[in-house]
# Entry
Amino acid sequence: MPAKILISESIIGSPVDALAAEFRVVADPELWKAPEKLRAQLAETEAWIVRNQTRVTAEMIAAAPGLRVIGRAGVGLDNVEVAAASAAGIVVAWTPDQNSISVAELALGMMLALARKIPSADRHVKETGWQRNRFFGVELFGKTLGVIGMGRIGFLTAMRARALGMNVLAFDKYVSPDSAQVTEARAQLVGLDELLARSDFVSCHAPLTKETRHLFNYERFAMMKASAYFLNLARGEVVDEIGLARALSEGRIAGAALDVREQEPPGPSPLSAMENVILTPHIAAFTNEGQARVTAAICGDIAAVLRGGEARNFVNFPRPRNRT
# Structure
């Protein structure tokens, strides 16, 4: 078993077992927390599999002279310096669609939970309460959902909202009004300010870039309806949490649901004490079905590249360049 595959986060399942049967696999779910130990392991690594917590920097890539392929088990690439990998001739494989259904379903679940105040009502009853008048909610039917980012996840979220009788607005600078995802979802493509002003629910599915960092700040939240709700299932840094907390405390918006945070794990925050805020620990992609698809896809591409073949889901190129 000549090839060494390094797995620096928690990635398990039968596809990993199959890799271990053919290649030499070193798996340490806590390795991402120890940069020096990680760097030492990379010296003999040919394939490196990560989720979103490992920082795949140019420095780390330089410490792995034999590295041929990096596998990102997920869709976001903000933790991988793709340009540095490409310059070194290393394939960057990912799983762009495999967990999309899981994320879209959680977005829908969060909308329902916010609209019907489910977490607060649950806590109330568990504390022996039964004051039903405290938990009047709103229907999703007939409301307007604003989707930020009409990629695969945004599209699937919009389609599920349509099934519940919602209207859909979309903001995405990189799609056209006649694109398949816009037309099939029967969405109206509008500017960001218009979307914020008209939407009853705003669901963010934008990637983290220099342009989207703190895209949602106090000023943007102040553009929304006082009765509107905000959801973020993309990347935490897209939201200025101080601005969000201020908007919520002033009643600028009705509530929020965050699955991702500016810092993970997060420190103390006023959001934690707010009854109209739902916080989950970055679990959008964590379903049995979604993770089975992700693991199978990334392990399949890693094996293909190490055997001399091509990755199916690649960001830069399907085979290593200038690498044996």
Observations:
- The radius of gyration is 21 Å.
- The chain has a mean pLDDT of 96.
- Residues 57 and 81 are 5 Å apart (CA to CA).
